[in-house]
Every structure is written in structure tokens, then in C-alpha cells.
Specification:
The protein is elongated, with a radius of gyration of 28 Å. The longest helix has 24 residues. The relative contact order is 0.05. Helix 2 packs parallel to helix 5 and helix 17 packs antiparallel against helix 18. The chain is mainly α. 77% of the residues lie in helices and 0% in strands.
């Protein structure tokens, strides 16, 4: 209020020589308003401070000018005036006396450009700054060079114990902290553009940390590195090591102000690493926390949107009640729509039509899961309305190869899952082939589709004396899936052991080894039940029922069908309940 009273008389009532004092008061008031996220008020105070500066303020009041104009740029950006914000940042870059004084301005400037989808310019700025910080950025890398960087970095990490990493000294080098900060931004930019160098930047963040010390961006770098390796890893040893690295990153959050990096670290760990080592329900619950933190902060909206996809995916694959999950999915879509529509008009104009690019990407990825959930509840009859997505949004996504690839991966996965549960064998096989042909397919999606594709293949044949090509396909898909799932079960028995037992049961039944098949079906049922995967518990009972029906043990088959029906009721799939009910009626009417 004191500052407001003074400003009411500016400039006529300010005595000569008092301008800087009043400017500092306005700066303090603007800082407090910005801390409270009242950016319009902050912008007003900071503008008042700026007009009180002398023309030669860069020479006469250099330090104050740096602080004032930088804070004004951030407030201006938060108010939606991107052009004015960039002008202020460029003023700092132009008048800064050394690179250290301009690093904050460069970082925010590159961040703004990245958010506006001007990725090439943002990428160039980051590379130029890192060069001034004595980093060498390669123009391009072939896959061999990337693999060498990954192997060398992995070797450095493997030689360090958990305590070595957890107790590593914190760096006091401001230059190193900014270097890691710019590499983190490069990771964000290159993930959607320069994909070949993305792993290199992750490796570089880890190596700089191991060589020079730890800071908060080191923790984020370790989490990103672990996520990257897990996504492409096929060896159990590599995934186990990244699980160790990821856990250390989570533990290291306690050492730093985690508010700035917690959403990113949790997203990487529980979205990409822990899915290989922990129950999927645990991953989904922790990602829900990320969504709440990221959305409430207002700073990590995109992270809040992206983790929703992982929440829905992991909750679905772990057998959460379908109607409950549908409501949660609709809530996420509603929040996304509200955030998109609430962006101010000046901000939208400044982004030249790309304001919703990443938010639209998140909505496109979550919508196929909603469709799958709806189909499994009642074939979409009463749950089929979806969030409206415009054709222009879809076309815009297709213009970016990585966006298009990720959308295709999610769409094909969900089409394959829908087809499997609906019993559409040919369609399931079609979409399974399409997703397995995707380059750089996510490792957990690969495991998921291998399991369902192999089960689906058994439906195509009656026994080992059937069609030769179909028998060969069954054995090929089975060998590939069982090998991968057995390795995965070593790291996460809760997620994968039941799948191993069920595939083994189907192969034993296929080979007419009936007693061994009975034991494996029982193991699959017990394993699914013990971890609460009610949908796969029901599936194991259903497939066991078909086996017992086939070998003439009709009453046992009916009992297993009844167990399966109870599981599907618990899952909330009316579609499957009706299917099982029909099969029970058929077997009762025609027992042989």
C-alpha cells in the first residue's frame, strides 16, 4: 500500500535523487506479487520501476538492471505477452557483461521458444550457450557413436555403489549447474526433433555429474537417462541397473529443493522405469501424485497431461475397475479441455496457433485408452461419447514424425487389446503385427503386446495337428513372448509371472500335455489373484475352462467359467460377463 501511494504521485512528487530508491521499492513489491503468482500486479510494479531508471542504467545501475528486467521478462511472459518478454530477455543478452550474467536470460528465452514450437531456434541457442560453457555439441551422431556414449556412461555408473551415488558431493560450480540445466532443456527439445542426439545429451548430464559433482539437475539427468535406457532395453541386466539408478534419483530428491524437478523425476521413474520392477498399481498411484503437484503448481501443465496417459495405461493393465477408470479418464480429458480453453487470447495469438500442440498430443494419446475402456464395459453402447478432437489437431500431430509414431503406437496397442478381448482373432493379429513393426517401440508396450499376441495365436488353431502355417506362427510367437516375459518376471514377478504361467499353460494344452497344462493354469490363476490383476485372473479362469471343456471335464469347465464371470463382474466388464454367460449356457445345453 505504501508503494501504491508513492506510485500515485509518480513522477511529479518524487524528489531528485530518489528515483532509484522508489524503483527498488517497486521491484520489491513486484517480486512479492510474482511469488504469489499475481503476475499482472507484478508486471505493473516492475514497469513502474523501469520507467524510473536513468537512460544509462546499464552502466550506472548494472546489477539492479539485470534483476529488474529479468523478473519483468518472466512476469511479462506469464501475462501472455511473449514478444515483449523476449525483447526484455534480448536486452539482457545484449547488455550483459559476461556469459554468467546472461545465462538466466538465455535459458528462459530458449524455454519460451521451445514452448512456442520454435524448436530449431531454441536448440541453436542452447548449443551456442553450451559452447560458451566449454561444451562440445556434435552436429550429428550415428547410432554407433550413440551406443558408445551409452556404454561408457553405463560403465561409469556400474562402477559406483548406491552409497557412492547417494553421498556424492554437491557441486558449488554455478557454471556446471547451468550446463546441466541447458542439457536438460536440450533433452526436452531433441526428444521431439533431433532424436539421434537425445540419448547423447542424457549421457552427458550423467557423466558431468559423476566427474564434477551433484546438483538438482543431476538428479533429473539420472532419471531421464534411466528412462531412455529402459525404453529400448531388451536385456534384464540393463533394466535392473536402470531400476537401481532410478531408485537413487528418487532418494536424491530429499537432498534438493524437489519442487522444480520432482514432476520430471517421478514421470521418468514411475512412467518408464518402475513399470519393469514394481506393481503397476504402485506406478499409477505415484503418477497420480505427479499430476496433482504439476497441475496445482501451474508450471508443469504438460507434465500433468502426459502423466495422465501413464496413469490410465498402468491402471488399465493392472485391472482397475473399468467404470471407475472411465470416470478418471473423463476427468483428465475435461481438465485438459479446460486448460486449453482458458489460455488468454494474447497468449494464443503469440503462439500463432500452436498453443495447444503438446496438450493436443496428450489428448490424442489418452483417447484410445478411453475407447478401449468403453468397449470393454459395454461395447461403447452407453459409455462411448468421447472428448471432441478436431481434424486440424489430428493433422497437426501427423506433421511431426515422432508425435505421429507415438500416436500410432498407442492406437495400434489399444486396437489390438480391444480386438483380443472382443475375440476378433484376425484383427488382433493385424494390429499386433503393426505395432511390433514400429521402430523404437517402448519396451513395456512390446512385452504387453507379445503376451496378448501369443495368446491370440492359440485361438487360431485347435491343436498341433492343425494348419501347418498357423501352428508355426503359434510356436514362433510363443517362443518370442515366453523368452521376453520370463526375463521380465525376474525383475517384476507381480506383473509378469502370471503371464508366464498362462502362456505355458496354453502351450502345454496345445501340445496335449493335459496334466501339466492343468498345473500351469492353476498357477496362472493363483498368481493373478495374488497381485489383484482381476482381469487376467478372469482370463486365466476362462482359458482353463476352455481346456477342461476340450478334454471332457465339463463340470470343472463350468466351475472355471463361473469363476471367470465373477472376476469380470468385479472388473466391471459387462461385455465379458455377457460373453461368459452365453458360453455357460451353451455348455450346459450341449455338454459334449
Amino acid at each position: 500500500q505504501v508503494v501504491d501511494q508513492i506510485n500515485h504521485g509518480v513522477p511529479s512528487l518524487i524528489q531528485p535523487g530518489m528515483e532509484i530508491y522508489v524503483a527498488e521499492l517497486n521491484f520489491s513489491a513486484g517480486s512479492m506479487a510474482a511469488d504469489l503468482s499475481d503476475f499482472e500486479t507484478a508486471y505493473s510494479y516492475l514497469n513502474n520501476a523501469l520507467v524510473l531508471l536513468p537512460e544509462n542504467h546499464w552502466s550506472s545501475h548494472y546489477d539492479f538492471s539485470l534483476r529488474l528486467i529479468f523478473l519483468r521478462a518472466k512476469a511479462t511472459y506469464s501475462c501472455g505477452n511473449i514478444e515483449e518478454a523476449n525483447d526484455s530477455l534480448n536486452e539482457i543478452i545484449k547488455n550483459g557483461r559476461c556469459i554468467e550474467d546472461t545465462l538466466d536470460a538465455y535459458y528462459v528465452h530458449a524455454t519460451i521458444l521451445n514452448s512456442c514450437e520454435e524448436k530449431d531456434q531454441a536448440y541453436t541457442i542452447c548449443c551456442e550457450v553450451l559452447s560458451q560453457l566449454e561444451e562440445t555439441i556434435p552436429d550429428s551422431l550415428d547410432m554407433k557413436e550413440v551406443l558408445v556414449a551409452i556404454q561408457e556412461t553405463g560403465g561409469m555408473l556400474a562402477r559406483m555403489s548406491d552409497n557412492d551415488l547417494l553421498e556424492m558431493k554437491e557441486t558449488d560450480s554455478t557454471s556446471l549447474q547451468f550446463t546441466l540445466q541447458f542439457y536438460n532443456l536440450l533433452c526436452s527439445i531433441s526428444f521431439f526433433s533431433e532424436l539421434n542426439v537425445f540419448p547423447y545429451f542424457c549421457c552427458r548430464m550423467v557423466r558431468l555429474t559423476l566427474e564434477h559433482g551433484m546438483c538438482q539437475y543431476s538428479v533429473l539427468g539420472m532419471a531421464i537417462y534411466g528412462a531412455v535406457i529402459c525404453q529400448g532395453a531388451k536385456q534384464t541386466s540393463a533394466i535392473r541397473e536402470m531400476g537401481r539408478v532410478g531408485k537413487i534419483a528418487i532418494e536424491l530428491l530429499k537432498r534438493f529443493d524437489s519442487s522444480a524437478i520432482m514432476p520430471g523425476v517421478y514421470h521418468c521413474y514411475y512412467g518408464y522405469i518402475a513399470t519393469h520392477t514394481m506393481p503397476l498399481q504402485v506406478c499409477a498411484d505415484n503418477l497420480r501424485k505427479v499430476h496433482e503437484v504439476a497441475l496445482s503448481s501451474g508450471k508443469y501443465t504438460y507434465v500433468a497431461f502426459i502423466v495422465c496417459i501413464h496413469v490410465v495405461r498402468n491402471a488399465f493393465l493392472s485391472g482397475q475397475h473399468l467404470s471407475t477408470l472411465l470416470k478418471e479418464t473423463d476427468y483428465y480429458l475435461k481438465v485438459m479441455t479446460q486448460v486449453r480453453s482458458s489460455i488468454s487470447v494474447p497468449y494464443l495469438a503469440a503462439l500463432s496457433g500452436t498453443a495447444f500442440y503438446r496438450e493436443t498430443f496428450a489428448m490424442l494419446l489418452i483417447s484410445p485408452y478411453r475407447e478401449t475402456i468403453s468397449v470393454l464395459i459395454d461395447k461403447g453402447q452407453s459409455t462411448g461419447s468421447q472428448n471432441e478432437m478436431t481434424r486440424s489437431d489430428d493433422n497437426e500431430m501427423a506433421s511431426n514424425p515422432l508425435y505421429a509414431k507415438k500416436c500410432s503406437e498407442t492406437i495400434f496397442l489399444n486396437k489390438a487389446l480391444q480386438s483380443f478381448w472382443l475375440g476378433h482373432t484376425k484383427r488382433c493379429n493385424h494390429y499386433s503385427k503393426k505395432i511390433l513393426q514400429i521402430e523404437l517401440l517402448g519396451s513395456h508396450n512390446r512385452l504387453t503386446i507379445q503376451f496378448y499376441a501369443a495368446l491370440n495365436a492359440f485361438r487360431a488353431v485347435k491343436n498341433s495337428n492343425g494348419n501347418g502355417s498357423k501352428c508355426a506362427m503359434v510356436k514362433t510367437l510363443y517362443r518370442s513372448a515366453i523368452s521376453a516375459l520370463r526375463s521380465a518376471a525376474e525383475l517384476s514377478p507381480s506383473t509378469f509371472s502370471n503371464k508366464v504361467y498362462l502362456l505355458e499353460a496354453e502351450m502345454l494344452a496345445f501340445e496335449r500335455k493335459h496334466q501339466e497344462a492343468k498345473a500351469s493354469y492353476a498357477a496362472a490363476i493363483t498368481s493373478s489373484d495374488s497381485v489383484g490383476y482381476v482381469h487376467e485372473h478372469g482370463l486365466a479362469c476362462e482359458l482353463a475352462a476352455h481346456h477342461y471343456k476340450k478334454i471332457g471335464e465339463v463340470q470343472t469347465a463350468i466351475d472355471f467359467f463361473q469363476q471367470s464371470k465373477l472376476c469380470y463382474i468385479q472388473w466391471g466388464s459387462q461385455m465379458k460377463v455377457e460373453s461368459i454367460t452365453q458360453q455357460i449356457e451353451n455348455i450346459q445345453q450341449h455338454p459334449l
